Each structure stands twice: as C-alpha cells, then as structure tokens.
Amino acid sequence: MRALIRDSRYLRDRFIDQEMVIEPRTIEGYAITSTKFFDKGYVTVGNATEFLDPVFSSGVTFAMESGSVAAKLVSRKLKGGEVDFQKEYVDYMMRGINTFRTYVTGWYNGDLQEIFFSKVQDPKIKKQICSVLAGYVWDDTNPFVKQHARAVKTLADHVRMQKD
Ligand SMILES: Cc1cc2nc3c(=O)[nH]c(=O)nc-3n(C[C@H](O)[C@H](O)[C@H](O)COP(=O)(O)OP(=O)(O)OC[C@H]3O[C@@H](n4cnc5c(N)ncnc54)[C@H](O)[C@@H]3O)c2cc1C
Known about the structure:
The chain is an all-alpha fold. It is built from 8 helices and 2 strands.
C-alpha cells in the first residue's frame, strides 16, 4: 500500500505519512458470477448472480431489475402460478448483462474511448449510447442494444478509419 501511494503523484504528498487505520488486505480468488441463478426454493439477485464492473453503474441497474423481476416471479409461483425461471429470469437477465458487458469490454479495449472522444459526433448515436449507459439495456428498439457487439465495434472501427 505504501509503495502504491508513493508511486502516485496525486496521493504521495497527501497520504505518504498517514497512519493506517486498518491493515491493508487483498482479496483473491473471488467469483464474479455464479453457476446457478435459481434452483428449488431459491433465486439469486444482484451481485449474488453476476458482478460486471464497479465503474459502469451496471451493478445498481442489475440489482434493482433482478430484484424486481425475481420478486414478481416468486410471488406468482407462491400463488400457484407457472413460472419458467430459466426463460423469464435467467435468459432475460443475461440479455441485459451481455449488452452491458459489450460496453464494459469496449471501455477497457479502447473502442468506447474512440467513440466518446471522436471529433465527429452524431447526436442520434450519442443519444442511443447514452440510453444504454443509463441502464436501458433491454430496449430492443435501440440498435446499440439489439446489435450491441457489432454496433460498437463497427462504429469504433469507422471512427478509427476517419482519423487515419
Ligand atoms: C467501489 C465500488 C464502486 C461501485 N460503484 C458503482 C456505481 O457507481 N454504480 C453502480 O451501479 N454500481 C456500483 N458498484 C456496484 C454496486 O454497488 C453493486 O453492484 C450493488 O450494490 C449490488 O447490490 P446488491 O443488493 O446485490 O448487493 P449489496 O449492495 O452488496 O447488498 C448486500 C447486502 O447484504 C448484506 N449481507 C451480506 N451477507 C449477509 C448475511 N449473511 N446476512 C445478512 N445480510 C448480509 C450486506 O451487508 C449488504 O448490505 C460499485 C461497487 C463497488 C465495490
């Protein structure tokens, strides 16, 4: 921890002599997904199902949506209704998770930076991408949701070509 602080010019002067209140610890080998989202008598929601990234606001989106969808399905089941948890819960959640995953991956591989910081900005595309990042990851009327992987890659490549 001291070495990390020393290496950062933003932190060095302010924190190098600070007393540690708790001992720095590392957490290794944690899981970011689970093999089962439901089984007899339970359904998992929020971080307990899948954790994508701490930066993208996907965490709260999925926690709220999965909690809400799961609660309605459980309620229907408890009232004796038919519920297909695989189709109505897992497949539905995975659609949103995979959309967000494209944008998280696109940020770390540079595709999103190319798009965000391009000198040429199309307001319609900007609106569609903002909508995804605001959590509308199930909105199939948005081509940046429906064709997320291809749309982001193609646009980033296009922006790169314009620069060259
Ligand atoms: C540093 C950091 C920054 C983040 N920034 C963002 C962000 O900007 N935007 C965003 O959308 N997401 C962000 N996230 C992710 C987001 O916080 C989580 O995805 C979200 O809070 C998950 O909600 P949850 O209800 O599933 O779990 P949690 O919010 O973790 O709630 C689980 C609760 O269960 C309690 N608990 C655990 N074990 C037990 C037990 N045995 N008995 C009783 N209670 C128990 C815990 O104390 C906790 O209160 C961030 C996460 C981190 C770590």
